[in-house]
Design brief:
93 residues, alpha+beta, five-stranded antiparallel beta sheet
Amino acid sequence: MKFISNSSYGKPVETGTIFYTTMNGITVTIHRIIHLDGWFLSCAQFQIDDQKLKAESLPGAIEESKEILEEYVKNVNDFINRYTSEPWEISRH
């Protein structure tokens, strides 16, 4: 998966503070926040906004973000499977 960096031209791409990738209309961003330590994950399509990552390195942050997104997708898949396979009923509170 190719990430785009906001690093200045002439500097190594790893010196950036924002790295993003987009596929099928989903954008995942690994970034820093000014005056805060560490890396953060954002993905508007999954309603993830500035989630703090434990990893201290960019490669570690990317791997950690994969785990977070896999868990999110697993939960959505579980919901969709139940929603589409179970008979529905209506009840009061």
